[in-house]
């Protein structure tokens, strides 16, 4: 029998009429302290999990558990919601404590959903403790040969004391894909504002049997199988993970996962194997940002114990704006070549702070075309932490970083595939210190190292100010939220202390609604084809250009930069400068039909106070496009 809703909920549902023949969404109440089992209404609630688990919930239904009351056993409700009417699990009552589901080791998960979708789970406490270890979870959501499972929200859920074994099937919270016959994945997973404490082995993870592809290699039984199906729209944010036996948080087989504003500490406290704080494997374009990780343990005889890890099979992983400190295994692991025939490509590590991490800052076991830039690493006096330990097969561009090394650690195995540009190396200078043609060895004048993130800001008079190399697509902000320049030399490290440079190219983003003060020669016009915003400039077909006369200072070096693309493969468009007291010069031509960044540096003559900049379609039958043009003194 369907139950009447409380008045407020019923009133809300009247705003969205129920389809003809469909029952109205209902709220069912569970109070495991009730004297007897009722019919699920607020007045006579259910009192045991068996009754709940025998019920199939319909779209829009709510299961409400009484606050401050413990239910023993496994919660395994049935049914699914819809995109407009998910099933909700929530708390009710005046007690401030969450309702508790305590599996007490009698089930593999305290809360289990299988082949169900459109569920929102809020305000619960889950435990699964026992006298001996076995495969156990706190919350397990599993899809087996299901196809696509949609929309899962876990909000303000406290999972603790899960006595799992040392396999990676034991977790605080896991979203698991299993099966081999139907390609299956999760779409739209949000875990937020939740706490995972004292669980074995892993804290918060995804996992999938649909994981095999060439970049992942032949391990885990993949062999020649290719069946990779990514979980999409996975977001883990604002969670607390601590006293985790093994790995803290892992995203496996995901596409564009977002892991942000989480705090993880006391990680790898019991597992004897290799574990790390927050990491990703076999995933495309994951982003880990604004997280704090500290006190990850490195077990004896193992190689891990880092705060962060871009493991094997990844493409384009980004680690930015994170704070790492006091981790026994170090700040970062690259493990791109750890699996049989595996590889990872294009990991970006930027605007992070690492303070008093141990063992090494970077431990690298293979990675293609990684970029590590605009980070600040500080090691106190007495530290023996190495800066880099590399076992080979790693290609890294190490740019605009501060290495404040008051200890004795050095660099080992940093192969010729590393490039070093415009870094600060302060303190200890071991013989293995890289040959960086733009290096600075003076004190970067960090404000107060050892006192937290604010202490790693640049102080007044720091030689790191304005000394970095321009990096295209640099993220737009520093660790502390300040803007970073795109056309002039940035400060080195994770803090942009200097004011951002002024753009001397007026209307360089073409968002003023007019081309002025740009002047058209032959063919040129505003166009909705934009790199950013709503407008750019179109020039051509050949010949066609827009030009602008700008005010400059004599004997001064400037950088002209911008974005360009073309509409046909035979076409080239360039940005350049002339009439500045030197030979006309321009950035390399844009020749692709996707936006690309280019820049050129020039020095004005002894008496020149103006220069002429331009965007010019120099060859071809198609159009050229330019946008976001900047001219700054460098």
UniProtKB/TrEMBL annotation:
GO terms for molecular function: hydrolase activity, acting on glycosyl bonds. It comes from the Bacteria. SUPFAM superfamilies: Galactose-binding domain-like, Pectin lyase-like. InterPro entries: CenC_carb-bd (IPR003305), Galactose-bd-like_sf (IPR008979), Pectin_lyas_fold (IPR012334), Pectin_lyase_fold/virulence (IPR011050). This is CBM-cenC domain-containing protein. The keyword Transferase does not apply. Residues 502-616 form the CBM-cenC domain. Pfam families: CBM_4_9. Keywords: Hydrolase, Signal. Gene3D superfamilies: Galactose-binding domain-like, Single-stranded right-handed beta-helix, Pectin lyase-like. Residues 1-22 form the signal peptide. Transmembrane segments: none annotated.
């Amino acid at each position: 029998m369907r139950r009447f809703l409380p008045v407020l909920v019923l009133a809300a549902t009247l705003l969205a009429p129920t389809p003809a023949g469909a029952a109205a969404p209902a709220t069912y109440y569970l109070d495991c302290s009730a004297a007897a089992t009722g019919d699920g209404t607020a007045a006579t609630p259910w009192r045991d999990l068996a009754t709940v688990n025998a019920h199939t919930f319909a779209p829009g239904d709510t299961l409400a558990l009484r606050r401050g009351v413990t239910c023993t056993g496994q919660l395994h409700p049935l049914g699914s919601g819809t995109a407009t009417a998910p099933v909700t699990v929530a708390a009710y009552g005046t007690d401030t404590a969450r309702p508790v589901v305590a599996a007490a080791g009698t089930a593999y998960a305290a809360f289990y959903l299988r082949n169900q979708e459109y569920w929102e789970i809020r305000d619960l406490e889950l435990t699964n403790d026992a006298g001996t270890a076995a495969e156990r979870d706190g919350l397990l959501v599993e899809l087996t040969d299901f196809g696509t499972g949609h929309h899962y929200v876990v909000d303000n859920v406290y999972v603790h004391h899960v006595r799992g074994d040392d396999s990676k099937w034991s977790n605080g919270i896991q979203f698991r894909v299993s099966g081999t016959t139907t390609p299956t994945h999760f779409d739209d997973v949000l875990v937020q504002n939740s706490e995972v404490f004292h669980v074995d082995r892993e804290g918060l993870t995804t996992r999938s049997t649909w994981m095999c592809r060439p970049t992942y290699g032949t391990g885990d039984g993949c062999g020649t199988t290719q069946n990779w199906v990514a979980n999409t729209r996975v977001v883990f944010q604002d969670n607390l993970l601590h006293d985790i036996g093994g790995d803290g948080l892992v995203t496996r087989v995901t596409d564009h996962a977002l892991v942000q504003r989480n705090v993880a500490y006391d990680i790898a406290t019991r597992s004897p194997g290799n574990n790390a704080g927050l990491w990703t494997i076999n995933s495309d374009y994951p982003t880990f940002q604004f997280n704090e990780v500290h006190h990850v343990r490195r077990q004896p005889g193992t190689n891990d114990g880092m705060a962060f890890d871009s493991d094997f099979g990844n493409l384009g992983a980004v680690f930015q704006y994170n704070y790492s400190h006091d981790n026994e295994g170090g700040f970062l692991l690259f493990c791109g070549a750890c699996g049989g025939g595996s590889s990872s490509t294009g990991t970006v590590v930027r605007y992070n702070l690492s303070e008093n991490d141990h063992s090494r800052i970077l431990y690298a076991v293979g990675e293609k075309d990684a970029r590590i830039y605009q980070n600040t690493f500080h090691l106190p006096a007495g530290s023996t932490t190495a800066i880099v330990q590399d076992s080979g097969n790693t290609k890294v561009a190490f740019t605009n970083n501060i290495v404040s090394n008051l200890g004795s650690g050095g660099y080992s195995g940093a192969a010729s595939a590393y490039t070093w540009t415009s870094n600060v190396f302060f303190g200890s200078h071991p013989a293995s210190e890289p040959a960086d043609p733009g290096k600075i060895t003076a004190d970067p004048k960090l404000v107060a190292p050892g006192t937290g993130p604010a202490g790693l800001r640049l102080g007044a008079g720091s030689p790191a100010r304005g000394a970095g190399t321009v990096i295209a697509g640099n993220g737009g902000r520093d660790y502390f939220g300040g803007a970073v320049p795109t056309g002039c030399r940035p400060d080195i490290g994770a803090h942009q202390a200097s004011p951002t440079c002024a753009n001397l190219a007026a209307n360089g983003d073409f968002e003023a609604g007019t081309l002025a003060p740009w002047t058209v020669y032959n063919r040129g016009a505003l166009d909705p084809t934009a790199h950013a915003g709503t407008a750019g400039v179109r020039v051509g077909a050949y010949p066609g250009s827009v030009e602008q006369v700008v005010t400059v200072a004599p004997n001064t070096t400037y950088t002209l930069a911008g974005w360009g693309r073309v509409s046909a493969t035979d076409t080239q468009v360039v940005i350049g400068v002339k009439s500045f007291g030197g030979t006309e010069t321009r950035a390399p031509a844009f020749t692709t039909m996707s936006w690309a960044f280019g820049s050129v540096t020039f020095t004005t003559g002894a008496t020149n106070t103006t220069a002429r900049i331009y965007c010019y379609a120099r060859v071809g039958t198609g159009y050229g496009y330019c946008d976001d043009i900047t001219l700054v003194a460098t």
